[in-house]
Inverse folding.
């Protein structure tokens, strides 16, 4: 995590140095300080790409606690052997954001200091269960063995936790769409504002909108 932070800082620093180098070059040629629309789009794209984790820009997270219950009935020659029950409770979180590769320069509008970035819908990126804080409760049937039925169900329940957490995260993300969108807007503004100010903008107005319907012709 520390190394990733250093790489991000180095990447942003490189972008800023590139900007200042260009500005100095323009100044020497007698050109007014500032970038044109195409150059601003390039700065926005490069900054978002540097900040992204691999190919995904993470803009927030949802904390949660997942409980999974599994039971198994067993009979032998028609005789009930009892029911084994397992309950696994695991805290954790899911991160959300959007794939940075789905943004192109056409999704960035520049009008003076008004910058509008059109992004794809926000979705769940990663699932992070805290297995070290997991609580497991097992009740074994009267004629069954914990080493067999109990452990088998425990492992089955634990393996299901990531999928359960992702599903809950996706459902909560839909219900909390407004909050997730707000967090995404704040994250993008926090990322872009310092770099845009470094280009010479006094007060960049950064707007974030959901990506428009496909601009490609259908069929």
């Amino acid at each position: 995590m520390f190394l990733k932070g250093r790489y991000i800082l180095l990447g942003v620093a490189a972008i800023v140095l590139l900007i200042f180098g260009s500005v100095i070059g323009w100044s020497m040629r007698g050109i007014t300080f500032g970038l044109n629309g195409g150059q601003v789009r390039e700065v926005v794209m490069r900054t978002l790409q540097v900040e992204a984790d691999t190919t995904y820009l993470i803009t927030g997270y949802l904390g949660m606690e997942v409980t999974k219950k599994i039971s198994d009935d067993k009979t032998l020659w028609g005789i009930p052997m009892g029911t084994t029950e397992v309950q696994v409770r695991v805290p954790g979180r899911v991160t959300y954001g959007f794939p940075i590769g789905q943004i192109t320069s056409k999704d960035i509008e520049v009008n003076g200091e008004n910058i509008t970035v059109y992004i794809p819908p926000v979705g769940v990126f990663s699932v992070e269960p805290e297995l070290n804080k997991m609580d497991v409760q097992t009740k074994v049937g009267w004629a069954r063995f914990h080493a067999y039925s109990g452990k088998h169900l425990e492992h089955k329940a634990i393996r299901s936790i990531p999928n359960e957490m992702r599903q809950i995260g996706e459902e909560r993300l839909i219900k909390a769409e407004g909050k997730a969108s707000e967090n995404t807007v704040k994250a993008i503004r926090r990322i872009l504002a310092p770099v845009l100010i470094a280009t010479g903008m006094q007060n960049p107005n950064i707007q974030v909108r959901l990506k428009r319907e496909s601009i490609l012709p259908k069929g």
The helical segments are 2-28, 37-51, 146-175, 177-198. The longest strand covers residues 56-76. The two ends are 45 Å apart (CA to CA). Residues 146-175 form the longest helix (30 residues).
